[in-house]
Design brief:
Blueprint: H1 2-26, H2 33-53, H3 60-82, H4 100-128, H5 136-157, H6 186-205, H7 212-234
Length: about 260
């Protein structure tokens, strides 16, 4: 039980804690962002070095190191986006009445540099671990990427809870690309695919011939995907997930209440 329970608890804690830290830092005054990004970039470089150094480590320790380093690379992506450093060429609200392709083009322009940065980071991790047996760091980053892309698409298409409280003041224009609806056709597909991925990862973790490295690594990944699914569930629940990170949101100014669901 401990072989699976400890990695699951570790994933839960680091997911909750790292999210709260990023939210808190990105809610501070903008003049602090240079120091935030300096620290985040230092951790990014250390994480890439750690991924390369642990790429041939197929012990339980190697699985944890790969997971932590992959998370730190993703943390840089999230921090760079929420500080406004890496967003997109379009930094204005969605044009009033825009639908279809004009709305999609404007939305893509708002996050284009962010999407390119994700691809560059994924390529950097792949190079750092190329030909090595420990790919937990790469799979961790890709799991974050897949779940975040799904969340972005669902918020764009429309969900009950948009998590707009997570956006700092300087990114408020992004709310104009969100749509508040009770449900959209993509969300059940996202939950189904995420659920299948979670089950397959857990099957790999509990396989009779799984090594300690695989037990730890696949349990960490399965737990991460399960938490991503929980975030998707919160999108359609009447209770938002903000309460989980009240301490991280303490640096935010008071926000107006979201519009009612229609």
């Amino acid at each position: 039980m401990a072989d699976h329970g400890l990695p699951a608890l570790f994933t839960l804690f680091i997911w909750w804690f790292s999210t709260g830290v990023i939210l808190y830092l990105d809610g501070l005054r903008r003049e602090t962002f240079r120091w935030t990004m300096l620290g985040a970039t230092t951790l990014l470089l250390a994480a890439l070095a750690g991924l390369h150094a642990s790429a041939w480590d197929t012990t339980t320790r190697g699985a944890y190191l790969g997971f932590i380093c992959g998370l730190l690379v993703w943390a840089w992506i999230e921090t760079a986006f929420l500080t406004g450093l890496v967003t997109g060429p379009n930094r204005s609200a969605c044009p009033p009445g825009a639908k279809g392709w004009p709305r999609l083009r404007a939305a893509l322009g708002a996050v284009l540099w962010h999407e390119i940065a994700i691809m560059v980071a994924a390529a950097a991790i792949a190079v750092a671990t190329w030909g090595a047996p420990n790919r937990i760091g790469l799979w961790t980053f890709l799991a974050f990427w897949a779940m975040r892309q799904s969340a972005k698409l669902n918020v764009y298409l429309g969900v009950r809870n948009l998590a707009e409280a997570f956006l700092p003041e300087h990114l408020r224009y992004l709310e104009s690309f969100f749509r508040r609806r009770r449900m959209n056709a993509l969300l059940p597909v996202s939950l189904l695919l995420g659920g299948v991925a979670c089950v397959l990862l857990m099957q790999s973790a509990i396989a009779a011939d799984a090594t300690p490295h695989e037990v730890a690594g696949f349990t960490l990944l399965a737990s991460l995907v399960a938490l991503g699914l929980l975030e998707h569930v919160f999108m359609v629940m009447p209770v938002p997930a903000d309460a989980l990170w009240r301490w991280g949101l303490a640096s935010r100014k008071d926000r107006p209440a979201p519009a009612a669901v229609t």
